Amino acid sequence: MRLFIDSANLEEIRKAAEFKIIDGVTTNPSLIAREGHDHHDQIRAICGILDGDISAEVVATDMEGMIREGRALAKIHDSVVVKIPLIRDGIKAVATLSSEGIRTNVTLCFSPLQALLAAKAGAYLISPFIGRLDDISHDGSELIREIVAIYDNYGYPTEVLAASARGPLHVKEAALAGAHVCTLPFKVFDQLFNHPLTDIGLEKFLADYRKTLVVQA
Question: Would residue 83 show up in a list of annotated catalytic residues for this protein?
Answer without folding.
Answer: yes
